[in-house]
Amino acid sequence: GEVLKNLNKFYKRKEIQRLGAENGLDARLFHQAFISFRKYIMESSSVSADLHIILNDICCDAGKVSLLGHVDDLFPFFLRHAKQIFPMLDCMDDLRKISDLRLPPNWYPDARAIQRKIIFHAGPTNSGKTHHAIQRFLSAKSGIYCGPLKLLAHEIFQKSNDANVPCDLVTGEERVYANEDARQASHIACTIEMCSTNTPYEVAVIDEIQMIRDPARGWAWTRALLGLCAEEIHVCGEPAAIDLVTELMYTTGEEVEVRNYKRLTPLTVLDYALESLDNLRPGDCIVCFSKNDIYSVSRQIEARGLECAVIYGSLPPGTKLEQAKKFNDPNDPCKILVATDAIGMGLNLCIRRIIFNSIVKPTVNEKGEKEIDSITTSQALQIAGRAGRYGSSFKEGEVTTMHRDDLVQLKEILSDSVRPVKAAGLHPTPEQIEMFAYHLPDATLSNLIDIFVSLSQVDGLYFVCNIDDFKFLADMIQHIPLNLRSRYVFCTAPLNRKEPFVCTMLLKFARQFSRNEPLTFDWLCRHTKWPLAAPKNIKELVHLEAVHDVFDLYLWLSYRFMDMFPDAVLVRDIQKKLDNIIQVGVCNITKLIRASQSAVAPGTAEVVAEDFPLSRTRRDGRAVSDSHSAKAPEALSIAVEVPGERRTRNSKAYRSATRQEDLKSHGRGSLANRLLREGLLTQEMLRQLESEWQDQHRNGRYGHGSKRDDQDSSKETGRKKK
Fold this sequence. Notes:
Layout: H1 2-12, H2 14-22, H3 27-43, H4 49-60, H5 75-85, H6 92-98, H7 109-112, E1 117-122, H8 129-139, E2 143-147, H9 150-162, E3 167-170, E4 175-176, E5 187-191, E6 200-206, H10 218-227, E7 229-237, H11 242-252, E8 256-260, E9 267-269, E10 284-287, H12 291-303, E11 308-311, H13 317-328, E12 336-339, E13 353-356, E14 360-364, E15 370-374, H14 377-384, E16 397-401, H15 404-415, E17 424-426, H16 430-439, H17 445-455, E18 462-464, H18 468-476, H19 484-491, H20 500-514, H21 521-528, H22 538-558, H23 568-587, H24 589-598, H25 657-665, H26 670-677, H27 683-698, H28 707-721
Parallel strand pairs: 1-7, 1-8, 2-5, 2-6, 3-5, 6-7, 9-16, 10-12, 10-13, 11-12, 13-16, 17-18
Antiparallel strand pairs: 3-4, 14-15
Helix pairs in contact: 1-3, 3-5, 13-23, 14-15, 18-19, 20-22, 22-23
């Protein structure tokens, strides 16, 4: 007891904490080291003689005026123990130097060797800012376009070659050469992660610069802005990023010329909400932030005899383009679009009116935590700005909401000023991690990343990007024997960790790779069960999307390990076929929804499908669902209420019209979904409430008791609804 008392006294002394900090133990490491040190002393059958003597002196002389021993004398033993559990303490100075991220401009000596001209094209969506930058790109002797999405890179690639300016396309999974002999063209359109900081260009275009603050991908914009070797850097994006870009360029000794643009067509926020799908007009686009709402709204639209196109993040690029083409075609009967915020960039759409089905959206913060909040002003402007595109058949754009209650809040959001971009993202490079591994040879890659982030130093203009996806993959393949560089490449693979099938396939890729056995076309077909049939329900459609992502993953790895992933051409061919199959499924999405619903056993309780956020973007620039999982519910049940009406299931699902009204009056419509999205209600609570309401209905609780009973019942029901 006396030993424990003195150990705790040692821990609390400010002098000891200061000494710990001087030796590389921050508050977190100091605490962990002390817990381990205390456990070692208290639970060991014996300790070293010198430590035993010190402890004896401290305990025996406790309370005396003349002390032979003092708790501070334990520090050398504590530090020795800490270095055993934290080996990096022995080389802390070297590790701090490696993880010093305070001067990112110095990482790019080639860019610092030239005097670059920075031109910021600032303006809202549909203001022509990118168009002016691209015109300069096309007129240059050489140039590179860096965009956030494969669709944007492909659009510039197409536009450039149509203008007789040979341009190559470079994405994580694809290389398309303008020259038949595969000789590199003078112009390149690429996703921003793929840009080269070593090749000199006359003009570089960096699109959507405000994404420099993105918690996951912001590092790619920082790298491009600081590292591109171009005489002119044309930066396009929101005015909110002007101050940060100016400050960053001040550290490189480069001035920024700002060119401001205004929207080319008027955009009006309507004074009334849609309220009912009966009020839809040609050119309308309903924006949803959950897959559940996408399915529900599209089915209700087609129940009215209207055709609608569907676009959401996890669809393959080819399917998105086909759906956009179908919606834009004036001769096609499809005049309505149901989409997520995936339409915010990368697709040219002829939209008359944007209708927000909801203004609440799931997001992921800087710490990787899932949050549910109202959309930001930047997001609202990006989406609303898609209405009334310049050059389309609609000369004016309109924006409103589905629900009357949301319209007031949407107006407030759109009238707010966009929050300034405060910091630019950074990410540890493979070279930095390799240097860490040299000093800490026994540490896992996940631990190396943790130590790097904990020791890293950044100034106020930068932040270290979220690395949870990287760590997840590092832990997943840790047991597979790979060299550090290969392991790092696998961990940077662009996949959504919420997709079990894709993660499983990455594991199989890594295992096969570690055996030095090439991953052939036959091997891939065998493990993905190719060829695949057209989907019969939503679950099968979700699985096909996951298989498409697996093919993307194979192609991405094939450009990094060509000898081990040798059949990229064959895989690209079957991926195009799979894209066509998915297109068929999306065109028949309402049939798939009905098939999914009919799979529910008669009489079972209706379960509202999980809300899937669809806004995240993969590291290679392809938009994906943040919670899109191959384990989608087999029986997907749609119960999203549209004001003024409700689509009901067949008679087997609902036994009577009375029960339908019960469910409707007790909030199984839009209120239930909103409570689910906000985390105030769980699926289990929802099922329990429904069970109680059914019991009350069967017991004649409503309409058969006394007036007092009716009043009590009404109060209780009100409390449950709240």
